[in-house]
Design a protein that fits this description.
single chain; 102 residues; alpha+beta; Alpha-Beta Plaits; three-stranded mixed beta sheet; elongated
Length: 102
């Protein structure tokens, strides 16, 4: 019985270590989400220069995006392009005008 209990505890411990390690290392829970964000925002000369995606809770993901654009729009315009992405609960967008443009 002792060996069986040790095996159960070892399996549980390994699962806990993997889950805690992912949180501590700020791993993105969805490897495709950054690509989806890029595809939706990098249009008409707009370019992402900084993108951070991380889990903030069970089923909730946060993103911070910095865009550079020749014709910048309000952050709310860019946020609306991401509104239907599942689990994306909190989005912060910073938009900078491309250097050298009027």
């Amino acid at each position: 019985m002792g060996l069986l209990a040790a095996a159960v505890v070892a399996a549980w411990s390994w699962t806990l270590v993997r889950a805690a390690g992912a949180v501590l290392l700020d791993m993105s829970p969805d490897a495709v989400l950054p690509q989806k964000i890029s595809e939706r925002l990098e249009r008409n000369g707009d370019r992402i220069c900084d993108l951070h995606v991380w889990r903030v809770g069970p089923g909730h993901v946060s993103a911070i995006v910095t865009l550079v654009s020749d014709r910048p729009e309000l952050p709310s315009v860019y946020k609306s392009k991401l509104a239907d992405l599942p689990h994306l609960s909190h989005v912060t967008i910073e938009v900078e005008r491309c250097p050298g443009t009027a």
